[in-house]
Amino acid sequence: MTVPSTGAPLVEVKGLRTHFTTDETTVQAVDGVDLTIRRGRTLCVVGESGCGKSVTARSILQLVEPPGRIVDGSILLHHPAEDGSSQPPVDLAALSPHGRRIRDIRGKDIAMIFQEPMSSLSLVHRVGSQIGEALRVHSDISRKEARRRAVELLGTVGIPDPAKRADAYPFQLSGGMCQRVMIAMALACDPALLIADEPTTALDVTTQAQIMDLLRGLQRETGMAIMFITHDMGVVAEMADDVAVMYLGTVVEKGPVDDVFHAPKHPYTRALLDSIPKIGSARRQRLPSIRGTVPDPARRPSGCVFHNRCAEFMPGRCDVTLPPPVAVAPDREVRCLLHGSTDDQPAAPATATSKEQR
Ligand SMILES: Nc1ncnc2c1ncn2[C@@H]1O[C@H](COP(=O)(O)OP(=O)(O)OP(=O)(O)O)[C@@H](O)[C@H]1O
Ligand SMILES: [Mg+2]
């Protein structure tokens, strides 16, 4: 019997391309993404709006809406059999979006909290029965047992008086409570991976901090992996073990969070880190923002897709050559012509405080 250890790859995304093609145009929303999500660890995927974070997450579960389609790449799920013995990985990218296999995996092996939480909760059903239904999709249990488990799960996610709250409708609960209900639903079948797409963006900072605490605590208890999507480097510092920085459909830099925060290699990563408010900085001081805007993904720039906004743009190189991924350390990769395997640049000074130093 093989029980995979914490840190072993659970999901490996390789060369993923997801495009939206219409008669007029093709939007290359995700265009060559490589990611590894490890057991028991949190991978934060970070980047500005429109860089392909949600489309990457939805691709993993084959939930991309037409005219979107995975056109290339693989998404390998390494999952032991029920008895714990190892079995060959399943390529989720090759499964039919409507087939039995992916429906079995959704919710049971991989659960997702969507960016718009209210769109996933029914307004006309009590929250306890919604969690109960999520349980009954994948296990053969009675309504009574489902109700008992639903109340237990509401308690697990920190909802006070869970037996009473199980009978509430979503509109009777606050935004933070609804987010906890969503997490309870996602946890119903004890998934190996929880994908959380900006789960705290709509919440006030105190509730945001509580939800992040809750997810970290649940991870310690259950050992689940988390893919946490955010546009906020401050949230990455709180949550991540590993980080992948996305820009215009590709991962431009990735690695363990401390390495990336202390020695960011890509100018885009450095610019995102500069946008975190620093303790001790003058109040009301404007944060530096990245110049320009993200280009239309249907009209990708030549060469490095970041070159027209980059503070370290090298004319004749960056606008011509697409930077290949370069391994700069173990588990650490960057796509930037400043970094080659032979002429790697010295690390930039530390620009932010990471999870470990809080
Ligand atoms: N149904 C669709 N049809 C056409 N293009 C789409 C569709 N859904 C997403 N896209 C495009 O794919 C790109 C990536 O979108 P995605 O939603 O993954 O961004 P994101 O990184 O999650 O942004 P945000 O931070 O705003 O949630 C965007 O340019 C978006 O316009
Ligand atoms: Mg999104």
UniProtKB/TrEMBL annotation:
Entry keywords, A to Z: ATP-binding, Cell inner membrane, Cell membrane, Membrane, Nucleotide-binding, Translocase, Transport
Molecular function, one GO term: ATP binding
Topology relative to the membrane: Peripheral membrane protein
Transmembrane residue ranges: none
Cell location: Cell membrane
Domain (ABC transporter) ranges: 11-273
NCBIfam families named in the record: oligo_HPY
Family, per entry: Belongs to the ABC transporter superfamily.
Annotated protein name in UniProt: ABC transporter ATP-binding protein
Organism annotation: Salinactinospora qingdaonensis
